[in-house]
Amino acid sequence: MPRPMLERNSTEYECFIDFLNHMPKSDGIIVNTFEALEPRAVKAISDGLCVPNGVTPPVFCIGPLIASGEGRGGGDVEECLTWLDTQPSRSVVFLCFGSLGLFTGEQLKEIAIGLERSGQRGNSCSTHHPYTTLKSLLCLKLR
Predict the structure, then answer these.
(1) Strand partners, 110
(2) 105 and 130 part of one domain
(3) Whole-model pTM?
(4) Which of 88, 94, 87, 86 is nearest to 118 (CA)?
C-alpha cells in the first residue's frame, strides 16, 4: 500500500476515500491488468466485495499498460535490451513492483534472499535501482 494511503490524515487518503465513495456512481471501473493475471482481485471487485453497501459498476480490464519512461527519468531502454540480448537463455529474473511498490525492511530482505538463492546474476534497468538499494541494505554481493 502506498505510504500516503497509510496516513489517514493525509490529503491523498482523503481523496482516495472520496473516490471510493463516488465509485458506485460511475459507469465502470477501468483497471490496468488482465483478468487471467489477477482473477481473484477482479472477481472480488466484480462481485461487489469492495463496495458492500452499493452497486458495483462493470469492471473493464484493459492492461497491462506500461507508462513510457519519457519525461519521468526513465532508464535507457536500448541499453537494457542490449544487455538482455547478451544473457544466456532463461537466466534473467524479472521483478516489477510498479511505481507504488512499498516494502518493509523485512520484505526487502526476503526479496534479496530470494534473488540471492535464485543463483542468477544481479542487474538493474530501473531508474530506482532496486538492486543497489537491496545491496546497500543487506550488504549483498551480487554476481
Answers:
(1) none
(2) yes
(3) 0.46
(4) 94
Cell of 130: 532496486
Q: Mapped to the 3 state alphabet, what secondary structure does 86-114 carry?
A: CCCCCCCCCCCCCCCCCCCHHHHHHHHHH
Residue 28's domain spans which residues? 3-61
Q: Which residues pair with 29 in a beta bridge?
A: 59
C-alpha cell at 114: 530470494
Helix (H/G/I), strand (E/B), else coil: 119: coil
pLDDT 10s digits, 99-142: 666 677 788 888 888 878 877 666 554 444 444 444 444 444 44
Matching residue, cell 497509510: 6
How many structural domains does the chain have?
2
State the cell numbers at 126: 530501473
Cell output for 64:
497491462
